[in-house]
Write a structure and sequence with these properties.
Length: 304
């Protein structure tokens, strides 16, 4: 398994068409195909035996979440972001055991119905550069200006009671915006929480290491209705976390202080994650008081 890359968001102005987001070289492995089958129930015989292509081939959408390995192409205003659509062009099969290369590029940005859209194209090729498939993912974000804009009545500027009216109108406008945003955030947080409830089996990878660290994330409801989260590692380390912010499918949570076996110090771990179907992908950053930082990535699936 290869985990997601760290999440480092660019300023909105730097999310431009033509920006190369990098890629990776990997091998189409039986383990990846098995994991795909566990999640989808798709166990076509071509994936493990003979096929019209001369041997086992991978499911066409084996790398359907490749675009989410690095969420740096997201605009910074995560709250309220929506997955709009994905498109695929399939050109050739991916033989089991064959090396493939991926490349991610921002190929579109547009505005529609007061939302900003970013289009990320992922191209998968073989080692010779032959195109195997291409996908395009459209992600939409709230327009920042929408929440800050104010409409002014020109006639009101001429009135003698302008200052009083302006203060009253401003107060009403602020209350309305705050109520709307609070309700929207609350609904989004509730929707994400409902989808997270239960036990998740995860593997984390510290940056620069290929050694997986198995752990479990348990999401439950406290008596007061809030979300209670516990992270437990196979070695016995366990700590609680709290949700910091959440959108429709992305969220940030932060741990209580806990001991890091790697840094050998007390740390607070902050995690950014995205919920894709029944899979969690994201990155973490553990900070110690002395200034040491440990970064890494993880991937989690629902436990049995």
């Amino acid at each position: 398994m290869v985990a997601a890359m760290p999440i480092e968001f660019f300023p909105a102005a730097e999310v431009f068409v033509g920006r190369d987001l990098g890629g990776r070289r990997t091998v189409v492995s039986p383990a990846d195909v098995d994991r795909y089958g566990d999640g989808t129930g798709d166990r076509h015989p071509w994936y493990t035996g003979d096929s019209p292509f001369g041997g086992p081939v991978a499911p066409a959408l084996l790398y359907h979440s490749e675009v989410y390995r690095d969420l740096g192409w997201y605009l910074p205003n995560l709250i309220g972001n929506l997955h709009a659509k994905q498109e695929w062009d399939l050109f050739a099969p991916m033989p089991l055991g064959a090396p493939v290369r991926t490349r991610s590029t921002i190929v579109g940005r547009y505005r529609k119905r007061n939302r900003d859209y970013v289009v990320n194209e992922v191209l998968i090729t073989d080692d010779d550069g032959r195109w195997l498939q291409r996908s395009r993912t459209h992600q939409s974000f709230l327009v920042d200006q929408e929440r800050r804009s104010t409409v002014v009545d020109r006639e009101r500027e001429k009135r003698t009671d302008r200052d009083t009216m302006t203060m009253a109108d401003s107060a009403r406008s602020t209350d309305t915006v705050m109520a709307r945003d609070t309700a929207s955030s609350s609904q989004a947080a509730t929707a994400v929480a409902d989808r997270l409830l239960g036990s998740w089996t995860a593997k984390g990878y510290d940056n620069g290491s290929s050694r997986a660290q198995p752990f479990t994330i348990i999401w439950s409801r406290s008596p007061d209705g809030s979300l209670a989260v516990t992270v437990a590692f196979s070695g016995g380390e366990k700590y609680n976390v709290k949700m910091v912010s959440s959108g429709d499918s992305t969220f940030v949570y932060e741990s209580d202080p806990h001991q890091s076996p790697t840094l050998k110090a007390q740390v607070v771990t902050r995690t950014q994650a995205k919920l894709v179907g029944d899979t969690l992908i994201g990155s973490y950053q553990a900070k110690a008081r002395g200034g040491k930082v440990l970064k890494g990535t993880f991937r989690a699936t629902r436990g049995s």
